[in-house]
Specification:
The protein is of the alpha+beta class. The protein has four helices and 13 strands. It is globular.
Length: 189
């Protein structure tokens, strides 16, 4: 996805002044228009994942959120990178300021679509690794697969891929949590 140039460089302060009805992400100060409303399949996958995570996290300190919810990856510096992952989990409540996450969430999920796949697989993977997201999943609705990336220090992300037959994919960032992919992909053509 190509950057839409409004100006040359933006920060979160600029971003907060933009119209509420528009969805944008900032990556290294460049503005990217968000894709149109997600498909029914995308919404179904997102809902099921949010339900499974929410049920696991009940009465625990970690919280699950879904898009649109701002993640300010470098708020303690330039504050020029704001993304809206499809799903995210934050375990450090001090990172929540009431309207955004300040710093890296513990766990992020992006659901791929033709208009966002390159950004999710290349640009966001780089960002999430750079800012220390412990675990990053990409969901491919067309192939009914999940690519799991778990951060291992200087090694970067170690990658595993699972398909729709898996009923207990572990979430390493959330001890004891597993995701049933059969349920996630149920009804997706």
């Amino acid at each position: 996805m190509e950057a839409i140039r409004l100006e040359d460089y933006f920060t979160y302060t600029d971003y907060c002044k933009w119209p509420d009805g528009e969805r944008w992400e900032l990556i290294d100060g460049k503005a990217y228009s968000m894709a149109p409303a997600p498909s029914q399949g995308h919404q179904s996958i997102s809902t099921e994942l949010t339900l499974q995570l929410g049920n696991f996290l009940k009465r625990r300190s970690c919280k699950v959120f879904h898009a649109p919810f701002d993640v300010r990856l470098n708020a303690d510096g330039a504050d020029d990178t704001v993304v809206q992952p499809d799903i995210l989990v934050v375990c450090d409540e001090s990172k929540l300021d009431g309207k955004s996450v300040i710093g890296a969430p513990d766990f992020i999920i992006e659901i791929l679509s033709p208009s966002t796949a390159k950004k999710d697989l290349v640009t966001k993977e780089r960002l999430y690794k750079q800012y220390g997201v412990k675990e990053y999943w990409t969901i491919d609705p067309d192939h009914k697969t999940v690519t799991v990336r778990v951060l291992h220090g200087d090694l970067g992300y170690l990658v595993h891929t699972y398909d729709e037959q898996e009923t207990a994919v572990p979430v390493k960032a959330l001890d004891g949590c597993t995701i049933n992919l059969t349920d996630v992909f149920e009804g997706i053509d």
